[in-house]
Structure formats: C-alpha cells, structure tokens
Amino acid sequence: MSVAAVFPSASQSAGMYESFYLRAVSPEEPVGVWIRYTVHKRPGENARGSLWCTVFDARAGRPFQHKLTTEDLGSPSGGWISIGEAMLGPDEARGACGDASWALRFASAEPELRHLPRKWMYRAPLPRTKLTSPAPAATFEGTVELPNRTLNLQGWRGMIGHNWGAEHAERWIWLHGIDFEQAPDAWIDVALGRIKVGRWTTPWVANGVLSLEGKRVPLGGLGARGVLVAETSKRCRLALPGPDGFTLDAHIDTPEDAIAGWTYADPDGSAHDVTNCSIAALTLTFRRAGSTPARTLSTAHGAAYELGMREHDHGIPIAPFPDG
Q1: Fewest beta carbons less than 10 Å away: which of 102, 162, 189, 308?
Q2: d(CA 211, CA 219)
Q3: Given this model, what pLDDT does residue 142 score?
Q4: Strand partners, 16
Q5: Long-range pairs for 208-211 at CB < 8 Å and ≥24 separation?
C-alpha cells in the first residue's frame, strides 16, 4: 500500500488535520473497536497528536471512550504515524490510551480505495478533505486490553482508513459495512459530504464503492443525480446511484445506547459534534438497470455509521475530551 502521512510536509503557517483509523468488529457478537491516530495543527502552531479509543458492546450500554493528546508525534520508518509510544503501520497497530491498550496485526488482499474520482483532486485546494482507505476490507488478530476485559480480535473483520485536509466538511456521513450474511466477501465504503462555500452549502456529494464478487461498483461521484439522504444520529437512509442505471438503497440502524459522541475541531477553531456507531445494522438493496430483480445484503452489526454535524441537540452524550 502506497500510503504516507501528510502532516510532516505541512508548512508552519498552514492549518491542517490528519487521521489514520481502524475499525474491527466481532463476527459473532455486537462488539467492535474504533481506534484513531490523529494530527491537529492550527496555523502558525506546532502539530499535536491524539490517540482515540472507542470500544462498542451493544449489551453493555455506553461505549468505552478515551483520548490522549501529545506533541510527541512522528512518521516512523516502516510505519505511517507514531504518537508517543503508539504506532500504526501497513500491517500492525499498537498503543495505549487511558485504561485501554492494544497490540493488533491486520492483513488485506484488497488494494487501496481512493474515494475521490480524480487524481488531481488529491492535490487541489478543493475538496478540503481528502480520504482513502488503505485497507477497505481487512482481517485482524491480536488483543485490546480493557480494565476488566480482554478482547481477542482473532478473525475480526474491518478496515483501515486515512483522511486529511484543511478543514472538515460542513456535514458528513461515513458508512462502512462488512460481514454480510448473503455475501461474506462483500463490503461497502462510502463517504458523503456537504461543503460550505461562502453562505452556500452544497447538496450531498457521495464517493465510494460497493465491492461484490470481487468487483467494485462506484457509488455517487461528481455530478451524480439521485443521491438522497435522510439522517439522524441513530439511523440513516441513503439512495446512491451507480453506473449504467445501478441504484442502491442503504438502511442503517444503531443499537440503543451504543453510539459514541466526540468533538472534532477544525484548524480555524470551529468544531463539529460527531456521532459514530461501529456495530450498526445495515441492509443494502440494489438493482441494475432493466428487469434485473433487486438483491439484498444485510449485516446485523457489521457496519460503521458516522455523522458529523454542527448541531448539538442530537441526544448523544459527547465525550469530555477537547480537540484542537
């Protein structure tokens, strides 16, 4: 995977953020982990690194959440990012954050997913957020240690993601799904955003793919018509167009009290509330043009659903850790 951290080359005068993250979910029970290694840099200031650890268990109620921030960060040889003693690289993740620690290895036969449809978009000022998935479908092994519990991630499925930019979208959704009952090798990875340009906020723009039987079907894209979104912090319905008359409907639902709330800061000092459930239920219904019957894929807890927003009345407790 040709992946490299962006923050080491950021100019001192620039503001930026960057995030490497992983999610993994148990194939047998509604338990999952979501770990982030992030960089936040305000204009004219030194970059700071943070470790974020969230563990979801639908049977235990509120997720475990902790965050640790330091200026001790780097891009190590053979790895992508280090924050203190923690490191994430092409095949391993290790670290400690509060009462949690992890030592994980992962492998993926899938090539990197680059969500943006044109190479020049990764070099241009717009969009202000760039994103890829270095391992959009990965298999994990290793352990996550919690105060009264050890999670053995042998055979857990998930992904590795990477995004960076000058600021977050005005509003965004990220959806990842894996471990579908009807097609165990299928996965979906799609990001949707609304961008604020002056006083105007764009309609939803979607970029991602559905991978089915080893083939990737693009979803959304620049100028795509038919993107429909009905979202709350707890559930979401999406209609996403693909090529040649392909259409996909996604229904996402989350277990009661199994949503994590965080604050994400922008380099300019503004912030979003972000809710994430990495053990969400997901049903996909899709069809190709013509008389082809619709097909359905479902996973009981194999999806991650994230919503970034400006409002605060979403009903999800926000973890008491500042950002920025």
Answers
A1: 308
A2: 10
A3: 98
A4: 41
A5: 208/113, 208/115, 208/175, 209/113, 210/186, 210/242, 210/248, 210/284, 210/286, 211/110, 211/136, 211/137, 211/185, 211/186, 211/187
Whether residue 220 has pLDDT greater than 70: yes
Q: Which two tokens stand for residue 7?
A: 């923050």
Rounded Cα distance, 237 and 300, in Å:
16
Amino acid at 166: A
Q: Does the pLDDT value for residue 126 go beyond 90?
A: no
The closest alpha carbon to 83, from 54, 109, 51, belongs to 51
Taking Cα atoms as reference points, which of 314, 324, 195, 305 lies closest to residue 263? 324
Residue 66 one-letter amino acid: H
**104 Cβ contact partners less than 8 Å away, ≥ 6 residues apart:** 22, 24, 92, 93, 94, 140, 141, 142, 143, 144, 153
Q: What is the DSSP string of 136-195?
A: EEEEEEEEEEETTEEEE-TTEEEEEEEEEESS--SEEEEEEE---SS-TT-EEEEEEEE-
List CB contacts of 136: < 8 A, sequence separation 6 or more: 108, 110, 112, 113, 159, 176, 187, 189, 211
Burial readout 62-72 (b: 16 or more C-beta within 10 A, e: otherwise) = ebbbbbbbeee
pLDDT class of 125 with cuts at 50, 70, 90: confident
Residue with tokens 């709330």: 261
Distance (Å, whole) CA 252 – CA 64: 22
Which tens digit of pLDDT belongs to each residue from 132-163?
999 999 999 999 999 999 999 999 999 999 99
- Rounded Cα gap, residues 93 and 124, in angstroms: 30
Q: Determine the average pLDDT of the residues in 301-307.
A: 98
The Cα 266–Cα 128 span in angstroms is 11
Of 324, 303, 306, 302, nearest in space to 316 by CA: 306
Going along the chain from its start, the domains and CATH numbers come out as: 16-309 (2.40.370.10)
Q: In three state form, how does the secondary structure of 59-74 look?
A: CCCCCEEEEEEECCEE
